[in-house]
Protein 1
Amino acid sequence: MMKRRTILTSALAFGALTVFDSRLALGQQLSKDAVFKDKDAPFLGNPKGNVTVVEFFDYQCPYCKKAYPTVKKVIERDGNVKLIMKDWPIFGDASIFAAQAVLGAAQIGKYEIALDALMKTGGRLTHDDIENTLTGVGLSMDEIAAAVNKHVDKISGLLDRNYAQATAFNFAGTPAFVIGSNLYPGVLDEKGLVDAIGRARRS
C-alpha cells in the first residue's frame, strides 16, 4: 500500500491579498517561480507556452470535475498555454490518496491517463473507487505504489507547497485559478478562461 500522509492542517493567516510577495510559513516568499515553475509539478499543454494556467483542485470536487473538460479544451485549442493542475486535497483521506496515486503515476510517465480517469469519476470517492478507476484504464497499483514510496519526499513536498500556496492566496475552496497576476476563485466557464488567458497575455 502507498504510504499515506496527513496534509497540513494549521491555517496560515494573511491580510489583504497581494498575488505575489505574500509571505508563506517559515518566512518563505511566495514568488511567481514558486507558483508557476515548481520543478516537481507535472503539467499539461505546451511546456513553452507564453501563459501558464494554474488550477488548485481536488479529485472529489464536483465543480473541478465538471469544468475539467472545458479547461482541457481551451488549453488544447489555444496551443500556447501550459496547464499546471495543483493537487489541493481538502476533502479528506480519499482525496490525499487520489493525489498521491496520480502523482505516483506521473513518476512512471502515466500522469495524464491517471488524471483524466479520476476527473471523469462522479461524486465522493473511496480508496477502492480510486484503485478500480486507475486499474480500469490499464494502470498497475503495484507500480504506482512503488513509485509513490520511491518518491515520497518529492510528492509530500509538492503537496505541502500546493497547500501553503492555496492558503496564502486565501482560496476558500476548489477550484481556484492563478493566471498571470490575477486570482480567479471558483469555476471559470469557457469564456471566462479564454478572457483570463488573454488578459495574462496582454499584461
Note: The radius of gyration is 16 Å.
Protein 2
Amino acid sequence: MDKKKIQALITLLDDPNQEIFSAVEGELLKEEVVIVPELERAWEMTMDAGYQRRLENLIHTLQFRNVKGELRNWLVSSDDLLYGAYLVSKYQYPELQYEDVNAKLTKIKTDVWLELNDHLTALEKVRIINHIMFDVYGYARNKTNFMAAQNSLVCDVLDTRKGNPISLSVIYSVVAQRLGLPVFGVNLPKNFILAYMDDGIDLVHSKNGVEGSVLFYINPINKGAVLGRKEIEFFIRQQKLDLLESYFLPCHNREIVRRMLNNLLYAYETAGQIDKTNEIRELLSIFS
C-alpha cells in the first residue's frame, strides 16, 4: 500500500464532480481492506455528511469484499468449524478478530478438560460438558428474541450466552472436538443436534456404516439432553418429513456454516433489512 497515494486519493473523494469521484472511488476499490483505517481517519476528521457517507460506503464495500474472499478461501482450503462461524460473525462485525473468539472458546474447553479423565464413559464426558456449558456458564436458548440475527453470530453468543440450536451446537462440538471427542453436527430440519460417534473424524466423510457408529445424539438447545434414534424419528414424523438418512448422520462443516448464513438471512428478511439480506444471499451463492 502506497500510503501517500491512498491519502491523496481519499482527499479527492469529496469532489463534487461525479466523474472525478467515480474515478477516485474506482482506484481506491483496487486496494485491499488494509486501507480502511485511513478511510476511518478521514471520516473522523470531517463534519461533511456527504463526504462521510461516501467514506462509509467505501469502507463497507471493502470490508464486505474481504469477508466474501475469506469465506471463499475457507470453503476451498479449510474445514475449521469455528473459523467458518467466525467469518459469519465478521460480516456483521468487520473488525472482529478470530483470536478473541478463539480465546473465549478455549476458556470453556479448558474448564471442561480440568474435569475429564481417560476412565470416563462417553456419557460421563457429555455430562461434564453439559455441566460446564449449561450450569456453570449458563448457555441457553434465547427465548425472548429467538429470531434475532445475534443468535447466529458466534461472537454474540459467546458474550451473551444465549443462542439458537445451531450456534450452541457449534460451540459445543468445537469444545468437544478440541478435547478429542467425536461430536459432530447433524443437520436436522427445524432443529440442529449433535451426534456422538463411536469412532473418530474419518466417519464424517464416510458413507459406509456411519449410522451404526452413532452412539447417541445430543440436543444443546435442551441443556445437552441425550437422545436415541427413536426420539429423532419421532421428531421428524412430528414435522411431517420423510425419514432421510441425512437427518441421522454427521454433516460437513460447510453445511453448518451455510445453515448459519440461512438463519441470518431469515433474521434480516424478518427485520426488513434489504441491503443485508441481499449481501447474505451473495455470500450464500459462494456455496453453490
Note: The chain has two domains: 3-77, 81-285.
Protein 3
Amino acid sequence: MQAESKGLWGASDAYERYMGRWSRKVAAQFLDWVDVPPGARWVDIGCGTAVLTAAIVESRQPSSVVGIDTSATFLETARHELTDPRVSFKQGDAQSLPLQDTCADAVVSGLVLNFVPDKDAAIAEMVRVSSPGGIIALYVWDYAGHMQIMRRFFDAAAALDQSAREFDDGVKAPICRPTPLRSLFEQAGLADIVVKAIDIPAAFDSFDDYWTPILGGTGSAPKYCASLSESARERLRIEVQSRLPIGPDGEILLAARAWGIKGRLPLPTT
C-alpha cells in the first residue's frame, strides 16, 4: 500500500480478515484475463501481503517477480509467507519506484491506485519500468457500485451520519470507474486498452462473519467504526444488519466487483 494509506492499512492480519480473503479471489481472475505468457519478468506495485504476487507465482510461471510496497509490516508478512527464490520484495513508493528502466515484461497493481496521491506519476512509473511491448495492468474495487461489502456498510452509515462520507471510498475515489481508468491509460500513451468488470461472490457464514472484521481498524469502514462512540457504533451495527440480505440460516451472500484495466506499451516505431 502507498504513502497516503500507511495509517489506513497498517495491520496485515486485520487486512486479511477484512479484505484479503476477497482480493485473493479477484487476483486469480485478473491474472487469467491479463494472460501474460510464462517466463515473464513481473513487478507487483503496492504488493501488500503478497496476495497478487503469490497468485503470479502459482499460475503464471514467471522468471521473476519483484513486489514493491511502502509498508514494512506488510513486506515482513510477504517475505514470511512467500519464499520462492524467484520472488523479491523492496520497500518503495508507486510514484518513484526503486527499479531500473525497462526491467519488466508485466507491471501490475492490485487494489492500490485509489490510495496513490499522484496517479499520473504512478502510471508514468509503470511505463518507465516496462519493456517495450510490455503489459501494464491493474484493478481497483468498484467502491461506488457493486463492491457490496463496503457499499452496504457506507449506505447504512450515511443514513445515520453524513460525516461517514468523509471515509467512503465510493465518494473519495472517483478513479475507480471505467472512464477515468481508461483516460489515465490513454494519457500515458498505452495501446490496446481494455477495461473489464471482475465479479466474485462474497459469502459470509453469519452477520458476525461480516461485522467482526469491520471492527479491526484496518481499512476505510473499520476506521470509520473506530471513530464512533460505543453507542453510535451499536446503532450502526443494527442499521447495517437490517440492510443485509440475511438467509434463513443466517448466511449472507453479497457481490464484490473490481474494475480491471490493461494496456500495452507500444513498440518503438522505426
Note: The longest helix spans residues 12-34.
Protein 4
Amino acid sequence: MSSPPKSLLARLFAFLTSFGLATFTLSMLLLITFLGTLEQAEYGLVASQARYFESFFIDRIDIGSCWRALAFDGYWDIGNVTLPLYIVPGGYTLLAILFVNLFCGGIVRIRKSPKTIGVIISHFAILFMIAAGAVSYHFAKEGSLELAEGKTSDEFRSFHERVIEIEKVQTDEKAKHSVLVIGAEKYRDLNTGKGRTFTHASLPFDVMVTNWKQHAQPKRDADGSRSDAVDGYFIQEISMLDEAGAALPDEQLASACIVIAKDKNGGAEQKGILWEFAAAPCTFTVGNDKYLVSLTHRSYKLPFAIRLDHTEQEKHPGTERARRFTSMVTKITGSREEKRVVTMNEPIRSEGYAVFQQTFDDGVRSGSGVKRSGFQIVENPSDHWPLISCIIVAEGLLLHFLMMLARFIKVNPWKFALGLIAAFNAAFALAMWKLL
C-alpha cells in the first residue's frame, strides 16, 4: 500500500532540512571564500568583501585576476577575462540559507532525546554565531580617531562610509550646531550624466548631486572647453590601482562629485566641486547666511571623550622596526576622569565601545615634532557573541561525547557527563582568573 503524497509545504520543509542543501551551501561558501581571497590581491579587501561576502548575489567573477593571483600568468597570460553572473548567491544569501537549514533540520526536525541534546546545543550555538555576523554587518560601527599628545576628542570617523555634510555657519557661538547628512548610498550611482536632487525644510536651497567618481581629483580646464567644468576645474577620474597594479586601500581613495545649490525662491544657482581630500569645504551663500558643504567620512559621537596624555613605542633591539605601541590616555565622562592604557592587542572596552591602538607617529617622520596616536574605534553589539557561541559549541559537543562514553562504560550518562563538564568549567574559570 503506497503512502499518500506529501503536501507542497511538507516537500518544501523536507528540502530546507535536507543534507543536500547543507552540502551545496557549504560548498558554495568555500568557493566564494576562495575566489574572494584571490581577487583581494587586485581589488582590495573592502571591494572583495562587498562583492562576495556582503552581497545577495555575485554580479561577476574576474577570472583574469584570480589567474594572476595563482601566478598562472607566468605560464600563460590570459589577460583580463571576466565572467558575468547574476544568479550565483553571495555570502549574505548563502548564510541566510544555512541559517534556515540548520534551524529547520538541527533544531525543529531533529529527534529530541537525551542522546541528541548535545547536538541540539551545538546547532543552536552555530545559529547564534551566524546571527552575530548579521548583527555586526547591520549595526556595527568602525572608524579611526587620531590624537596628538595633550589633545582631546569625543568623535571618530568611519573608515569606509562617505557622506555629504551640509552645515550652516553660526555667527552666535552659543547657537546649536546641526549638520544635515546625505549618505553615500543615495548618490554613488550618479556618474556622468546622472543627477539627483535632495531637499530639506531647514535649507533655503535644494541640493543636486551629479558626476560622482569613486577615485578622482580636480583638474584645471586649461582651454575652457569642458562643459562639466566648475570655476575652471573639472573632475578627472584616476586609476584605483597603485604602481604595482594592486588595488589601493579604500582609505586612500578620494571620491569627488559636483553639487548644485538651487535657491528655493528662484535665485541664481551655485555650483561647486566636492573632493574628499579638499583642504576646505565648499561654501554657498544665500542671503546673509553661509552654508558649508563637504564630502567626508561619516563621523560618530562617543559617549565619552579621550585625551592622549603620552604615547611611546618600543623597537626591536638593533633595528628601527616597531615592536610595540603604547598610549596613556584619560577617559573623560562628564566630570569624571579615568586613567587607562591602550597598547597593541590590548584594547580598552567601555560602554559598548572598544578602543584599539592602531598607528603611531613619533613626530620625526612627519616633520611635525609632535607625537600622535591613531586609535581604531569599534562599536559592535555582537562583539562577544562569537566567543559565546564557540563556548556553547564546545559544551554541546563535550556533553554529547561524554554521554556516549558513559553509555559505553555503562554508568549514569547525566551524572557522568554533567559532573565532568562542571569540573572542566571550574578548571577553565580558575585558569582564566589566574591569567587575568
Note: Residues 142-379 form one domain.
